[in-house]
Amino acid sequence: MSQEQKQGGRKKGSPSALSLWFQRKMNARTTGKVRRKGGKYLGMDLLILHTTGRRSGVARETPITWFADDDGWLVVASGGGKRDPDWYVNLMAHPEQAAVEVHGSPAVPVTPHRLAGDDHAQAWQHITGQQPRYAKYQQKSAREYPVVRLARK
């Protein structure tokens, strides 16, 4: 019997149905607060990222921290350090369907660009200059956090 069969069809380390349900409830709650408060929540600037589920095809809305960039918005796919967050995997699977809401404005279609090399390094320096906790999070993880630029279409 494989490890996946032992866990009821889930891969080792993947979230349970209960944790996914809880995460979606918390995302919906936080999304409502972000819309009411104009993008500020717990002292952070949040945007609402619109993606489409990579397997389900269901529209998803995820509140995430963003950082200003000349070409759009920068977001970090930290996912708690262990794995890519669902929003990131969905975004990369269906980049043509991505949009963002910022400060209560209507959703704006965006094109995601995963940064690499010097672009990643420069963006990472900008991000950690504004939020040093990201550098601390990165030090605790074996994987390099993806940084994505969300550029207006």
TrEMBL record:
Say which domain of life the source belongs to. Answer: Bacteria
Which is a Pfam family this sequence falls into?
F420H2_quin_red
* InterPro entries tied to this protein: F420H2_quin_Rdtase, Split_barrel_FMN-bd
**Recorded catalytic activity of this chain's protein:** oxidized coenzyme F420-(gamma-L-Glu)(n) + a quinol + H(+) = reduced coenzyme F420-(gamma-L-Glu)(n) + a quinone
A GO molecular function annotation here is:
oxidoreductase activity
Which Gene Ontology terms of cellular component type are present?
plasma membrane
The entry's family comment says: Belongs to the F420H(2)-dependent quinone reductase family.
**Could you identify this protein by its name?**
Nitroreductase family deazaflavin-dependent oxidoreductase
